[in-house]
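My current task is to audit a protein record that another person submitted. Thanks in advance; the entry in question is below:
***
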Amino acid sequence: MSKSTNVVWHDSAVTKEERQKRNNHKSAVIWFTGLSGSGKSTISVALEKALYDRNIQTYRLDGDNVRHGLNSNLGFSPDDRKENIRRIGEVAKLMVDAGMITLTAFISPYREDRDNVRGILEEKEFIEVHVNCSLEACESRDPKGLYKKARAGEIKAFTGVDAPYEEPSSPEVVINTEELSVEESVKAILSYLRDNDYINE
């Protein structure tokens, strides 16, 4: 519940629909979720470049990047994780209103938190992409050395080790990064966007 009082929403003279029309594409949030090391950031970076090369207005919000600034005061407790995702959802909603396709790459381990973000957006503005990769494969990659630290007890409440990850129940897209390359993953998401009229090609 908001702690602010005497706050009134001011509408713009330019609508989301007008921005979308000028951009020649719909706006939405592409929400990547998956275990650490599954490939969320890598695929989101490649997808952002692919969309940019197609003249799509896009921006990427990455978990580590956001924690350098906007969410630098948050840790990794369940409550802080919930607030982290809530803030990102609100930022992403503003970007959707600005007419952009916004990519977010966060573990976002709790289904309820992801569903809450979906709930603040309009229908079809939230595209959940489950970057599906087994814990064993993610741990073998361990690009940041985080699993090793978690197994050694140096990191507490690490998703997949001693904190849960709740897989999406009905994501719009599933990408298995043990089977698909980065290029194939990007191609699959672009196909979804074309087939569902988010972008025109």
Notes: The chain has a mean pLDDT of 90. The first strand starts at residue 28 and ends at 33. The radius of gyration is 17 Å.
